[in-house]
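Inverse folding, one chain.
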């Protein structure tokens, strides 16, 4: 009796000891939320570089847009005079109108062609990888190289006019980069040619994530190929559509290299975009304050489109 009672009394002692001194298994739980110092060091280094090379210049642009500055003397604060000057600047109006045309043509052309290529090359078949690589190949080239390549293509004795002559369309031959009526369209073709492969890859990734059982069920129900694509496949690509639209808008508004290398904004400002006009004001006319104001306009336009797409994306997810 004595031994049993003593053992019964002594049993709770280990439990009390466990409560007072947590074992090794419980200790890591307290340390799990701590971030090592090395991680903070790398984060601070990356954040410092980002702040110096990205955020500070961006914030400085807003200040310089309110000044008159030639890049050499001290900036002189003039308030909103640069923005009021834009209202009277015919070249700025032309660049803004060209940007609207460029945005519409670049977005519609690259998205429709990229989606069509993705649908055509989605199913595995012989040589499909080669076709995908060839379509994506222009994306590997820089925009400057793309512009120089198409500048050669559009020469009066270049391949474009030679092909038109070979198929009996001599009346369509043009001085493509010297005609103010069609130069913007000619440069737009070069930009879309490069962008199609990138959009195709994005849509191929989205098509791989769709549910094929839904398309099979629609086929059994007698839906045509177009009905299956529009009512079954496209609703599953909403997320990809948002990403493609955002990327296309950003690329369209910041387009510079291909236009500058092909036409420099000419002839007679007929292919001038906001980006090329901003560059010309800054580095040709030495009007860095006015060019900063144009950069602010580009930023506001881009931000407006991005906010619109994000709001639509979040609304669709709800």
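Residues assigned per position:
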């Amino acid at each position: 009796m004595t031994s049993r009672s003593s053992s019964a009394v002594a049993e709770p002692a280990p439990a009390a000891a466990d409560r007072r001194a947590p074992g090794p298994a419980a200790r890591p739980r307290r340390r799990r939320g701590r971030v090592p110092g090395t991680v903070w060091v790398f984060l601070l280094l990356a954040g410092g570089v980002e702040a110096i090379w990205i955020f500070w210049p961006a914030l400085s642009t807003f200040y310089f847009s309110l000044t008159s500055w030639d890049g050499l003397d001290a900036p002189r604060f003039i308030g909103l005079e640069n923005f009021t000057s834009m209202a009277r600047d015919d070249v700025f109006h032309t660049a803004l109108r060209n940007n609207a045309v460029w945005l519409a043509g670049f977005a519609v052309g690259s998205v429709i062609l990229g989606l069509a290529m993705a649908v055509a090359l989605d199913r595995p078949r012989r040589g499909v990888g080669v076709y995908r690589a060839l379509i994506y190949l222009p994306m590997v080239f820089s925009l400057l190289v793309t512009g120089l390549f198409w500048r050669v293509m559009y020469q009066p004795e270049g391949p474009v006019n030679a092909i038109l002559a070979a198929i009996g369309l001599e009346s369509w031959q043009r001085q493509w980069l010297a005609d103010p009526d069609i130069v913007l369209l000619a440069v737009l073709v070069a930009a879309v040619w490069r962008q199609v492969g990138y959009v195709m890859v994005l849509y191929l990734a989205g098509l791989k994530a769709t549910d094929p059982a839904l398309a099979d069920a629609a086929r059994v129900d007698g839906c045509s190929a177009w009905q299956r694509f529009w009512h079954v496949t496209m609703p599953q690509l909403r997320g990809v559509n948002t990403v493609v639209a955002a990327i296309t808008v950003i690329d369209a508004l910041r387009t510079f290299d291909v236009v500058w290398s092909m036409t420099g904004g000419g002839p007679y400002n007929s292919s001038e975009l906001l980006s090329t006009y901003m560059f010309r004001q800054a580095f040709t006319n030495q009007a860095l304050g006015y060019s900063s104001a144009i950069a602010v306009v580009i930023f506001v336009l881009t931000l407006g489109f991005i906010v619109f797409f994000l709001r639509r994306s979040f609304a669709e997810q709800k």
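The chain has one domain: 90-317. The first strand starts at residue 67 and ends at 68.
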